């Protein structure tokens, strides 16, 4: 990773870095009076925040996270407009991450650990202004969080704290899966502003039942302690809901403060 010079950071970023330094000094002063596990977790979080801020905040990292069969790789392709992520039986068996960027982000992708052959840049001269709303976006397709391969889950666990916006992709059959709610969502209380949930494969649900299904997902999120998390419905197969999801991601990119907000939540 190549860090930016300190004078390249804006005032908000400098303020956050100052808070990181204050917390690191507090941990040093705490010494043996603080539990070792808590100190280790805190230092890891602070290190991730410092590294992310040092890379600048001109890019917003959005990750599609989901379980086996949720269709997140198909959704990645639908959002990017490219058939780049491996889908279904063609999905690689190694713990790889796929990235699509709107604008160069090599240093950031190096930090995230995305292999060069798993990166693609979406925006080109042929697109005109059709992609301008997503300029600055780094879209990631992560391995399945419930994979039987431990190395896949390790990649997900490593990247979650490094992402600015988490897009949890669920399907009508497994949206209530305990591996998602107990394993991940309940540990993200306080980060509601940095996530949204997408019910993919909504085309497989009768129209009259879609509303109640979305309400049930919102209920489960509230039970997880996550209030006001947006829940979208989409189908990577038919394209329904994809423009709305794309617009929601574009708003996060346009905010130009998602990385700071994520850091604020971590530091809080």
Automatic annotation (TrEMBL):
Residues 62-200 form the G domain. GO terms for molecular function: GTP binding; ribosomal small subunit binding; rRNA binding. One of its GO terms (biological process) is ribosomal small subunit assembly. GO terms for cellular component: cytosol. Signal peptide: none annotated. PANTHER family: GTPASE ERA, GTPASE ERA, MITOCHONDRIAL. This is ABC transporter. It comes from Actinotalea ferrariae CF5-4.
């Amino acid at each position: 990773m190549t860090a930016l010079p300190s004078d390249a950071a804006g005032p908000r970023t400098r303020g956050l870095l100052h808070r990181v330094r204050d917390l690191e000094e507090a941990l040093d002063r705490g010494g043996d009076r603080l539990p070792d596990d808590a100190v280790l977790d805190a230092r890891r979080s602070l290190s991730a925040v410092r590294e992310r801020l040092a890379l600048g905040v001109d890019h917003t990292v959005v990750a599609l996270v989901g379980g086996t069969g949720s269709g997140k790789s198909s959704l990645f392709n639908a959002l990017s407009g490219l058939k780049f992520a491996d889908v279904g039986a063609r999905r690689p068996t190694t713990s790889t991450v796929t990235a699509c960027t709107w604008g160069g982000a090599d240093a950031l992708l190096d930090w995230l650990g995305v292999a060069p052959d798993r990166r693609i840049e979406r925006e080109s001269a042929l697109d005109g202004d059709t992609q301008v709303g997503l300029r600055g976006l780094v879209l990631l397709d992560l391995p399945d969080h419930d994979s039987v391969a431990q190395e896949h889950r390790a990649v997900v666990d490593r990247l979650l704290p490094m992402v600015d916006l988490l897009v949890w992709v669920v399907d009508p059959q497994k949206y209530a899966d305990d591996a998602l709610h107990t394993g991940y969502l309940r540990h993200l209380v306080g980060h509601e502003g940095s996530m949204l949930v997408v019910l993919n494969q909504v085309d497989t649900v009768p129209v009259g039942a879609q509303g109640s299904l979305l309400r049930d997902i919102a209920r489960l999120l509230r039970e997880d302690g996550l209030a006001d998390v947006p829940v979208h419905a989409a189908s990577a197969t038919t394209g329904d809901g994809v423009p709305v999801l794309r617009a929601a991601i574009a708003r996060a990119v346009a905010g130009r403060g998602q990385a700071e907000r994520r850091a604020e939540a971590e530091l809080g």
